[in-house]
Amino acid sequence: MSDALINSLAAAVEARPDDLTLRLHLAEMLVAAGRGPEAIGHAAQILAREPGNTGAQQVMARALGETAPPAPPAGGEQAPPTATVAPEAGAQPPEAATERPATGGSKIDWAAMEEQFGDVVPPRFARADGEPDPVRGHADRAFDVERSVVTLADVGGMAEVKKRLEVSFLGPLRNPKLRSLFGKSLRGGLLLYGPPGCGKTFLARAVAGEMGAAFISLSITDVLNMWIGSSERNLHDLFESARGHAPCVLFLDEIDALGHKRSQLQSSMRTVVNQLLTELDGVDGGNDGVFVLAATNAPWDVDAALRRPGRLDRTVLVLPPDRPAREAILEYHLRDRPVVGIDLAAVAAATEHYSGADLAHLCETAAEYAMRDSIATGEVRMISQADMLGAAREVRPSTDAWFATARNVAMFANESGEYDDLAAYLKKRKIR
Q1: Which residue segment(s) compose the domain that 419 sits in?
Q2: Which tens digits make up the pLDDT trace of 393-411?
Q3: Which has the closest alpha carbon to 344: 356, 358, 332?
Q4: For the whole prediction, is pTM greater than 0.70?
Q5: Angle at CA 126, nearest 5°, toward 125 and 130?
Q6: Residues 294, 152 share a domain
Protein backbone atom coordinates (compact mmCIF):
# COMPACT_ATOMS: atom_id res chain seq x y z
CA MET A 1 0.00 0.00 0.00
CA SER A 2 1.46 3.35 -1.05
CA ASP A 3 2.22 5.67 1.87
CA ALA A 4 1.78 8.62 -0.49
CA LEU A 5 -1.80 7.53 -1.22
CA ILE A 6 -2.57 7.14 2.47
CA ASN A 7 -1.09 10.56 3.22
CA SER A 8 -3.18 12.16 0.48
CA LEU A 9 -6.32 10.51 1.81
CA ALA A 10 -5.46 11.62 5.37
CA ALA A 11 -5.14 15.20 4.13
CA ALA A 12 -8.55 14.94 2.48
CA VAL A 13 -10.07 13.63 5.73
CA GLU A 14 -8.49 16.50 7.66
CA ALA A 15 -10.07 18.96 5.23
CA ARG A 16 -13.47 17.20 5.48
CA PRO A 17 -13.60 15.73 9.01
CA ASP A 18 -17.35 15.05 8.85
CA ASP A 19 -17.12 12.89 5.71
CA LEU A 20 -17.49 9.51 7.42
CA THR A 21 -17.35 7.50 4.18
CA LEU A 22 -13.98 9.02 3.35
CA ARG A 23 -12.75 8.45 6.91
CA LEU A 24 -13.86 4.79 6.79
CA HIS A 25 -11.98 4.26 3.54
CA LEU A 26 -8.84 5.72 5.15
CA ALA A 27 -9.25 3.43 8.17
CA GLU A 28 -9.54 0.37 5.89
CA MET A 29 -6.38 1.36 4.04
CA LEU A 30 -4.51 1.87 7.33
CA VAL A 31 -5.49 -1.61 8.53
CA ALA A 32 -4.39 -3.12 5.23
CA ALA A 33 -1.06 -1.32 5.57
CA GLY A 34 -0.53 -2.72 9.07
CA ARG A 35 -1.08 0.63 10.81
CA GLY A 36 -3.75 -0.60 13.24
CA PRO A 37 -3.41 2.05 16.00
CA GLU A 38 -4.05 4.86 13.49
CA ALA A 39 -7.05 3.00 12.09
CA ILE A 40 -8.52 2.65 15.60
CA GLY A 41 -8.59 6.44 16.05
CA HIS A 42 -10.49 7.01 12.80
CA ALA A 43 -12.91 4.13 13.44
CA ALA A 44 -13.60 5.48 16.95
CA GLN A 45 -14.54 8.88 15.53
CA ILE A 46 -16.96 7.25 13.10
CA LEU A 47 -18.57 5.15 15.85
CA ALA A 48 -18.89 8.21 18.08
CA ARG A 49 -21.12 9.77 15.41
CA GLU A 50 -22.75 6.58 14.07
CA PRO A 51 -22.66 3.86 16.75
CA GLY A 52 -24.29 1.34 14.39
CA ASN A 53 -21.83 1.74 11.50
CA THR A 54 -20.99 -1.91 10.72
CA GLY A 55 -18.08 -1.01 8.46
CA ALA A 56 -16.38 0.93 11.25
CA GLN A 57 -17.06 -1.88 13.71
CA GLN A 58 -15.41 -4.38 11.35
CA VAL A 59 -12.40 -2.13 10.86
CA MET A 60 -12.16 -1.68 14.64
CA ALA A 61 -12.26 -5.43 15.21
CA ARG A 62 -9.56 -6.05 12.58
CA ALA A 63 -7.34 -3.29 13.97
CA LEU A 64 -7.75 -4.53 17.54
CA GLY A 65 -6.90 -8.06 16.42
CA GLU A 66 -3.60 -6.79 15.03
CA THR A 67 -2.67 -4.60 17.98
CA ALA A 68 -3.97 -6.75 20.86
CA PRO A 69 -1.34 -8.24 23.19
CA PRO A 70 -1.04 -12.05 23.19
CA ALA A 71 -3.38 -13.80 25.60
CA PRO A 72 -1.78 -15.41 28.71
CA PRO A 73 -1.23 -19.20 28.58
CA ALA A 74 -4.04 -21.45 29.81
CA GLY A 75 -4.06 -22.09 33.53
CA GLY A 76 -2.27 -18.85 34.30
CA GLU A 77 1.18 -20.37 33.68
CA GLN A 78 3.93 -17.96 32.86
CA ALA A 79 6.77 -18.55 30.46
CA PRO A 80 9.93 -19.73 32.20
CA PRO A 81 12.55 -17.04 32.70
CA THR A 82 15.33 -16.82 30.20
CA ALA A 83 18.43 -18.56 31.49
CA THR A 84 21.56 -16.50 31.94
CA VAL A 85 25.08 -17.80 32.02
CA ALA A 86 27.29 -16.37 34.75
CA PRO A 87 30.74 -15.29 33.64
CA GLU A 88 33.72 -17.18 34.91
CA ALA A 89 35.27 -15.97 38.14
CA GLY A 90 37.64 -13.09 37.58
CA ALA A 91 36.51 -12.59 33.98
CA GLN A 92 35.64 -9.08 32.86
CA PRO A 93 34.25 -7.86 29.54
CA PRO A 94 36.66 -5.57 27.69
CA GLU A 95 34.43 -2.50 28.13
CA ALA A 96 34.24 -2.89 31.92
CA ALA A 97 37.60 -1.21 32.40
CA THR A 98 36.26 2.05 30.97
CA GLU A 99 33.09 2.23 33.09
CA ARG A 100 32.92 4.06 36.37
CA PRO A 101 32.34 1.88 39.44
CA ALA A 102 28.91 2.33 41.06
CA THR A 103 27.41 1.46 44.42
CA GLY A 104 26.11 -2.06 44.72
CA GLY A 105 28.27 -3.47 41.93
CA SER A 106 26.05 -2.08 39.12
CA LYS A 107 27.65 -0.32 36.17
CA ILE A 108 26.15 3.07 35.28
CA ASP A 109 27.39 5.35 32.54
CA TRP A 110 26.92 8.63 34.39
CA ALA A 111 28.24 10.72 31.51
CA ALA A 112 25.61 9.27 29.17
CA MET A 113 22.85 9.85 31.74
CA GLU A 114 23.86 13.51 32.21
CA GLU A 115 23.83 14.00 28.45
CA GLN A 116 20.38 12.41 28.21
CA PHE A 117 18.65 14.12 31.14
CA GLY A 118 20.69 17.28 31.68
CA ASP A 119 18.25 19.49 29.77
CA VAL A 120 15.27 18.02 31.64
CA VAL A 121 16.47 18.16 35.25
CA PRO A 122 18.95 20.97 35.96
CA PRO A 123 21.58 20.26 38.64
CA ARG A 124 20.55 21.17 42.15
CA PHE A 125 23.99 21.98 43.58
CA ALA A 126 27.33 23.39 42.49
CA ARG A 127 28.91 21.48 39.66
CA ALA A 128 32.35 19.87 39.89
CA ASP A 129 33.62 21.75 36.83
CA GLY A 130 33.17 25.09 38.57
CA GLU A 131 30.32 26.30 36.34
CA PRO A 132 27.63 28.24 38.26
CA ASP A 133 24.38 26.46 39.04
CA PRO A 134 21.45 28.14 37.23
CA VAL A 135 19.23 30.03 39.67
CA ARG A 136 15.47 29.83 39.19
CA GLY A 137 13.99 33.30 38.97
CA HIS A 138 17.04 35.06 37.55
CA ALA A 139 16.33 38.39 35.88
CA ASP A 140 17.50 37.07 32.52
CA ARG A 141 15.20 34.04 32.63
CA ALA A 142 13.22 33.20 29.50
CA PHE A 143 9.48 32.68 29.88
CA ASP A 144 7.67 30.10 27.79
CA VAL A 145 5.86 32.00 25.05
CA GLU A 146 3.40 29.73 23.25
CA ARG A 147 1.29 29.97 20.11
CA SER A 148 -2.05 28.35 20.81
CA VAL A 149 -3.83 26.41 18.05
CA VAL A 150 -7.07 26.25 20.05
CA THR A 151 -9.85 28.74 19.23
CA LEU A 152 -13.19 29.64 20.80
CA ALA A 153 -14.88 27.31 18.33
CA ASP A 154 -13.22 24.45 20.20
CA VAL A 155 -14.79 25.57 23.49
CA GLY A 156 -18.16 23.97 24.14
CA GLY A 157 -20.85 26.17 25.69
CA MET A 158 -19.78 29.28 27.68
CA ALA A 159 -21.88 31.59 25.49
CA GLU A 160 -21.87 34.45 28.03
CA VAL A 161 -18.12 34.19 28.56
CA LYS A 162 -17.46 34.28 24.82
CA LYS A 163 -19.74 37.30 24.44
CA ARG A 164 -17.88 39.18 27.16
CA LEU A 165 -14.53 38.41 25.56
CA GLU A 166 -15.76 39.52 22.14
CA VAL A 167 -16.95 42.89 23.44
CA SER A 168 -14.00 43.64 25.71
CA PHE A 169 -11.05 42.60 23.57
CA LEU A 170 -11.54 40.45 20.47
CA GLY A 171 -13.93 42.83 18.69
CA PRO A 172 -11.77 45.96 19.17
CA LEU A 173 -8.69 43.99 18.08
CA ARG A 174 -10.31 42.97 14.78
CA ASN A 175 -11.67 46.47 14.07
CA PRO A 176 -8.89 49.05 14.60
CA LYS A 177 -10.89 51.90 12.99
CA LEU A 178 -13.84 51.41 15.31
CA ARG A 179 -11.44 51.04 18.21
CA SER A 180 -9.92 54.40 17.38
CA LEU A 181 -13.35 56.02 16.85
CA PHE A 182 -14.71 54.95 20.23
CA GLY A 183 -11.42 55.39 22.07
CA LYS A 184 -11.28 51.73 23.12
CA SER A 185 -7.88 50.57 24.33
CA LEU A 186 -6.53 47.04 24.05
CA ARG A 187 -5.54 46.90 27.67
CA GLY A 188 -7.62 45.38 30.38
CA GLY A 189 -8.21 42.26 32.38
CA LEU A 190 -10.82 39.63 32.95
CA LEU A 191 -11.21 37.47 36.05
CA LEU A 192 -12.63 34.01 35.45
CA TYR A 193 -13.98 32.27 38.52
CA GLY A 194 -15.91 29.12 39.19
CA PRO A 195 -15.53 25.51 40.34
CA PRO A 196 -12.29 23.72 39.46
CA GLY A 197 -12.02 21.70 36.28
CA CYS A 198 -14.53 23.72 34.22
CA GLY A 199 -12.14 24.92 31.51
CA LYS A 200 -10.80 28.27 32.65
CA THR A 201 -7.25 27.50 31.47
CA PHE A 202 -8.52 26.00 28.21
CA LEU A 203 -10.58 29.14 27.60
CA ALA A 204 -7.52 31.35 28.09
CA ARG A 205 -5.61 29.35 25.47
CA ALA A 206 -8.60 29.61 23.12
CA VAL A 207 -8.59 33.41 23.43
CA ALA A 208 -4.92 33.51 22.45
CA GLY A 209 -5.57 31.19 19.52
CA GLU A 210 -8.60 33.22 18.40
CA MET A 211 -6.59 36.40 18.08
CA GLY A 212 -3.38 34.74 16.87
CA ALA A 213 -1.58 36.19 19.87
CA ALA A 214 1.24 34.95 22.04
CA PHE A 215 0.27 33.11 25.20
CA ILE A 216 2.15 33.19 28.51
CA SER A 217 0.90 31.23 31.50
CA LEU A 218 2.02 32.12 35.01
CA SER A 219 1.63 30.29 38.29
CA ILE A 220 2.81 31.26 41.75
CA THR A 221 5.85 28.98 41.48
CA ASP A 222 7.11 31.07 38.55
CA VAL A 223 7.20 34.19 40.73
CA LEU A 224 8.04 33.39 44.32
CA ASN A 225 11.70 33.27 45.33
CA MET A 226 13.36 33.03 48.72
CA TRP A 227 15.59 36.07 48.09
CA ILE A 228 14.31 39.53 48.98
CA GLY A 229 13.20 41.42 45.90
CA SER A 230 13.53 38.45 43.53
CA SER A 231 9.79 37.73 43.44
CA GLU A 232 8.99 41.31 42.49
CA ARG A 233 11.71 41.24 39.81
CA ASN A 234 10.32 37.98 38.39
CA LEU A 235 6.88 39.54 38.16
CA HIS A 236 8.26 42.59 36.37
CA ASP A 237 10.21 40.39 33.94
CA LEU A 238 7.05 38.46 33.17
CA PHE A 239 5.08 41.57 32.22
CA GLU A 240 8.03 42.90 30.21
CA SER A 241 8.08 39.65 28.26
CA ALA A 242 4.34 39.97 27.58
CA ARG A 243 4.74 43.58 26.42
CA GLY A 244 7.57 42.56 24.13
CA HIS A 245 5.36 39.90 22.49
CA ALA A 246 2.19 42.01 22.15
CA PRO A 247 -0.49 41.21 21.24
CA CYS A 248 -0.25 38.75 24.06
CA VAL A 249 -2.61 36.95 26.41
CA LEU A 250 -1.10 36.80 29.88
CA PHE A 251 -2.78 34.11 31.97
CA LEU A 252 -2.46 34.35 35.76
CA ASP A 253 -3.59 31.02 37.15
CA GLU A 254 -4.71 30.74 40.79
CA ILE A 255 -4.64 34.52 41.17
CA ASP A 256 -5.93 34.20 44.75
CA ALA A 257 -2.54 32.72 45.73
CA LEU A 258 -0.53 35.49 44.09
CA GLY A 259 -2.92 38.38 44.74
CA HIS A 260 -4.35 37.40 48.12
CA LYS A 261 -5.91 40.05 50.35
CA ARG A 262 -3.02 42.10 51.76
CA SER A 263 -4.74 42.42 55.13
CA GLN A 264 -4.22 38.67 55.60
CA LEU A 265 -0.60 38.52 54.37
CA GLN A 266 2.83 39.02 55.87
CA SER A 267 4.88 42.00 54.76
CA SER A 268 7.02 39.99 52.31
CA MET A 269 3.99 38.87 50.30
CA ARG A 270 2.31 42.28 50.47
CA THR A 271 5.15 43.73 48.39
CA VAL A 272 4.49 41.09 45.71
CA VAL A 273 0.83 42.12 45.53
CA ASN A 274 1.90 45.76 45.31
CA GLN A 275 4.21 44.90 42.41
CA LEU A 276 1.37 43.08 40.65
CA LEU A 277 -0.83 46.17 41.00
CA THR A 278 1.93 48.34 39.54
CA GLU A 279 2.41 46.05 36.55
CA LEU A 280 -1.32 45.91 35.83
CA ASP A 281 -1.39 49.71 35.78
CA GLY A 282 1.50 49.76 33.30
CA VAL A 283 3.28 52.57 35.10
CA ASP A 284 6.74 51.68 33.75
CA GLY A 285 5.54 50.49 30.34
CA GLY A 286 2.39 50.57 28.28
CA ASN A 287 0.15 47.54 28.49
CA ASP A 288 -1.53 48.11 25.14
CA GLY A 289 -1.89 44.76 23.44
CA VAL A 290 -1.48 42.83 26.70
CA PHE A 291 -4.74 41.22 27.72
CA VAL A 292 -4.65 39.79 31.24
CA LEU A 293 -6.79 36.78 31.99
CA ALA A 294 -6.83 35.59 35.58
CA ALA A 295 -8.47 32.48 37.00
CA THR A 296 -9.42 31.52 40.51
CA ASN A 297 -11.64 29.15 42.43
CA ALA A 298 -11.92 31.63 45.31
CA PRO A 299 -12.55 35.19 44.04
CA TRP A 300 -13.54 36.26 47.55
CA ASP A 301 -9.87 35.86 48.60
CA VAL A 302 -8.52 38.18 45.87
CA ASP A 303 -7.38 41.61 47.01
CA ALA A 304 -10.04 44.23 46.24
CA ALA A 305 -7.48 46.56 44.65
CA LEU A 306 -6.84 43.99 41.91
CA ARG A 307 -10.49 44.12 40.89
CA ARG A 308 -10.94 47.86 40.56
CA PRO A 309 -11.56 49.45 37.10
CA GLY A 310 -8.48 49.41 34.90
CA ARG A 311 -7.12 46.17 36.33
CA LEU A 312 -9.11 42.94 36.56
CA ASP A 313 -12.24 45.01 36.18
CA ARG A 314 -14.50 42.40 34.57
CA THR A 315 -15.56 39.22 36.32
CA VAL A 316 -17.15 36.23 34.59
CA LEU A 317 -18.53 33.09 36.22
CA VAL A 318 -17.42 29.90 34.44
CA LEU A 319 -20.03 27.25 35.20
CA PRO A 320 -20.02 23.48 34.64
CA PRO A 321 -20.68 22.61 30.98
CA ASP A 322 -24.27 22.39 29.79
CA ARG A 323 -25.62 19.31 27.98
CA PRO A 324 -24.36 20.17 24.44
CA ALA A 325 -20.97 21.04 25.88
CA ARG A 326 -20.87 17.77 27.85
CA GLU A 327 -21.58 15.82 24.65
CA ALA A 328 -18.71 17.62 22.91
CA ILE A 329 -16.34 16.94 25.81
CA LEU A 330 -17.28 13.25 25.93
CA GLU A 331 -16.86 12.92 22.17
CA TYR A 332 -13.41 14.51 22.40
CA HIS A 333 -12.17 12.15 25.12
CA LEU A 334 -13.55 9.08 23.33
CA ARG A 335 -12.24 10.13 19.93
CA ASP A 336 -9.17 7.90 19.84
CA ARG A 337 -10.50 5.05 21.97
CA PRO A 338 -12.20 1.84 20.73
CA VAL A 339 -15.93 2.44 21.29
CA VAL A 340 -19.15 0.81 20.12
CA GLY A 341 -22.83 1.67 20.60
CA ILE A 342 -22.30 4.71 22.85
CA ASP A 343 -25.19 7.18 23.10
CA LEU A 344 -23.48 10.45 23.97
CA ALA A 345 -26.80 12.22 24.57
CA ALA A 346 -27.81 9.65 27.19
CA VAL A 347 -24.45 9.86 28.94
CA ALA A 348 -24.59 13.68 28.88
CA ALA A 349 -28.07 13.56 30.43
CA ALA A 350 -26.73 11.36 33.26
CA THR A 351 -23.81 13.70 34.04
CA GLU A 352 -25.49 16.99 34.96
CA HIS A 353 -23.29 19.32 37.05
CA TYR A 354 -20.13 17.39 36.06
CA SER A 355 -17.08 19.51 35.27
CA GLY A 356 -14.96 18.95 32.18
CA ALA A 357 -12.33 17.25 34.34
CA ASP A 358 -15.01 14.96 35.80
CA LEU A 359 -16.09 13.94 32.29
CA ALA A 360 -12.49 13.20 31.29
CA HIS A 361 -12.13 11.02 34.39
CA LEU A 362 -15.42 9.28 33.55
CA CYS A 363 -14.10 8.30 30.09
CA GLU A 364 -10.88 7.09 31.67
CA THR A 365 -12.84 4.96 34.15
CA ALA A 366 -14.99 3.46 31.37
CA ALA A 367 -11.82 2.57 29.46
CA GLU A 368 -10.47 0.85 32.57
CA TYR A 369 -13.62 -1.30 32.77
CA ALA A 370 -13.17 -2.50 29.18
CA MET A 371 -9.43 -3.02 29.60
CA ARG A 372 -9.94 -5.01 32.82
CA ASP A 373 -12.34 -7.38 31.06
CA SER A 374 -9.98 -7.69 28.10
CA ILE A 375 -7.13 -8.71 30.40
CA ALA A 376 -9.31 -11.19 32.30
CA THR A 377 -10.73 -12.92 29.22
CA GLY A 378 -7.77 -12.57 26.87
CA GLU A 379 -10.05 -11.06 24.23
CA VAL A 380 -10.05 -7.35 23.51
CA ARG A 381 -13.46 -5.71 23.68
CA MET A 382 -14.53 -2.16 22.98
CA ILE A 383 -15.91 0.44 25.37
CA SER A 384 -19.69 0.15 25.54
CA GLN A 385 -22.63 2.19 26.80
CA ALA A 386 -22.77 0.01 29.92
CA ASP A 387 -19.17 0.99 30.72
CA MET A 388 -19.99 4.70 30.37
CA LEU A 389 -23.10 4.54 32.56
CA GLY A 390 -21.29 2.39 35.12
CA ALA A 391 -18.50 4.96 35.26
CA ALA A 392 -21.09 7.74 35.69
CA ARG A 393 -22.39 5.94 38.79
CA GLU A 394 -18.88 5.64 40.20
CA VAL A 395 -17.53 9.11 39.33
CA ARG A 396 -19.47 11.78 41.16
CA PRO A 397 -19.42 15.51 40.26
CA SER A 398 -16.65 17.39 42.04
CA THR A 399 -18.41 20.76 41.75
CA ASP A 400 -20.87 20.16 44.59
CA ALA A 401 -18.30 20.94 47.30
CA TRP A 402 -17.37 24.23 45.62
CA PHE A 403 -21.00 25.34 45.31
CA ALA A 404 -21.56 24.53 49.00
CA THR A 405 -18.83 27.05 49.88
CA ALA A 406 -19.87 29.58 47.24
CA ARG A 407 -23.44 29.50 48.52
CA ASN A 408 -22.40 31.18 51.78
CA VAL A 409 -20.60 33.95 49.90
CA ALA A 410 -23.51 34.57 47.52
CA MET A 411 -26.00 34.74 50.39
CA PHE A 412 -24.10 36.60 53.10
CA ALA A 413 -21.19 38.48 51.43
CA ASN A 414 -22.71 39.92 48.27
CA GLU A 415 -23.31 43.50 49.36
CA SER A 416 -21.89 45.02 46.16
CA GLY A 417 -23.74 42.59 43.89
CA GLU A 418 -20.56 41.17 42.32
CA TYR A 419 -21.84 37.62 42.83
CA ASP A 420 -25.35 38.17 41.47
CA ASP A 421 -24.74 35.73 38.60
CA LEU A 422 -23.63 33.09 41.08
CA ALA A 423 -26.69 33.72 43.26
CA ALA A 424 -28.98 33.40 40.22
CA TYR A 425 -27.39 30.08 39.25
CA LEU A 426 -27.71 28.73 42.79
CA LYS A 427 -31.36 29.76 42.84
CA LYS A 428 -31.93 28.03 39.53
CA ARG A 429 -30.34 24.84 40.89
CA LYS A 430 -32.31 25.31 44.12
CA ILE A 431 -29.18 25.21 46.26
CA ARG A 432 -30.17 27.00 49.45
Answers
A1: 400-429
A2: 999 999 988 998 888 888 8
A3: 332
A4: no
A5: 165
A6: yes
